[in-house]
Design brief:
Blueprint (H helix, E strand, L loop, with lengths): L1 H38 L25
């Protein structure tokens, strides 16, 4: 029926709008993360292989 077709078209339109909004949010989050990385201080972290999770492989220098 015409009414069902109209509802279907409205739903497709809303879906497209949501997909576009999702892409914009994803892009904005990426930009925010990029800026945060430049603002946050660099920290020298050393992992302790003795206290790390047993499945975590720690490099010899403890940095990876």
């Amino acid at each position: 029926s015409i009414q069902l077709q109209n509802e279907h078209n409205k739903l497709q339109n809303e879906h497209s709008k949501l997909q576009n909004e999702k892409r914009k949010i994803h892009h904005d989050c990426g930009q925010l993360l990029k800026h945060l990385k430049t603002l946050l201080p660099k920290v020298n972290v050393i992992l302790d292989a003795d206290t790390a999770h047993p499945q975590l492989i720690v490099s010899d220098d403890g940095k990876q």
